[in-house]
Amino acid sequence: MMIKPAFLLYIDPGTGSMLFSIFIGLAAALYFFFRTFLIKIKYLVLGKRNGRSRSRKRGEYVIYSEGGHYWPVFKPVADEFERRETGLLYLTSSEDDPVFKNSYVHVHPEFIGAGNRAVASLNFLEADVCLMTTPGLEVYQLKRSKLCGHYSHILHDTGDATCYRLFGIDWYDSILLSGEYQKADIRELERLRELPRKELYVIGSTYLDVYREKIKNFPREKDHPFTVLVSPSWGPGALLSALGEKLLDSIKEPGWRIIVRPHPQSKISETIMLSRLEKKYPSFLWDYQDENVESLSKADIMISDFSGIIFDYAFLFDKPVLYHRAAFNREIYDAGDLEQEPWKFQALRSFGVELAEGDLPGIKDIILKAVSNTSFSAARLKAKERAWQNEGMSGSAAVDALMGIRARMYGADKK
Questions:
Q1: Which residues lie across from 109 on neighbouring strands?
Q2: What is this structure's pTM?
Q3: Quick check: 119 pLDDT over 90?
């Protein structure tokens, strides 16, 4: 009897992503070809209207949010569009996004799915101006739609704009910044990479404006246990990956409350590590809430690495931080193409205490000394003034920028 050979087909994740991108590209090309063809037929049959021919836009202004944890970033912008009675299409990849709980009239939320489903929808987006936090436009699967006139990126921390993974913001048309200092590095990357010159707007920090108001009504804990918050970035160079059990063992002090707040991306990319640590340290509080402000408010000190959450904590609560940066690999970030050190590390040296692996046996004394040291407060304030400009007015500044962009795209005849 003849035995037929069996074949096993395997597609690795990288190839799968490439094939999906090719499929989306082909689908987009066919879509735009037939759409353009139909528009030309309509133009020939109906002629020009009001001296010009325009296709109907799905949204003049569009926000895309990757999930509910980005709501504090977009809330002031959505609120301002509502206040100005200007239409905004709010696309989200979270079915329980907080945007749905608001009784907006002019802001229209819509769930578009997550992952590849969201990417497929966004690659056919019809809009005048689209605002996102998502890095890697035109680099990974998320491509520029030919029917979207302008892509704007809003920073979701007050750190360097060059601390995204490589090419994170290269192909955006504009960037909404938290501080003037961020402009110089973007301009240098444009020069080095021969990129088109972006429009840069200093609007402030939308999510810090939200948290600033929220913490005013927070009840103060009375006689709470001394609390250490461990809140790192993610990836092989981040705090939990670099020090892990060595760090957590060293801060397991009787009477201390330990809160561990992993980076949201860790839940996606580092689930095995987190599961192991949760089982080993069940007495620790593991915070996976969308918003970080509750844990920040409870902490007496923070231990982190190069995460932007350090600045959230220092600017909102004016409390001390320890940071570990030994494993920070600049080469995988945009900052790796620049000669100067990222500003965040310059600032951290002025108001934070650097933590090395060799310091762990004596970390209790380091923590207590940092908490009692009041000399860092002036440096925290100086960093805040530089990185969080336009405090309390970011939503209005953001909408001014977006509406100005659209006005220049279409001329004064379009509101």
A1: 90
A2: 0.82
A3: yes
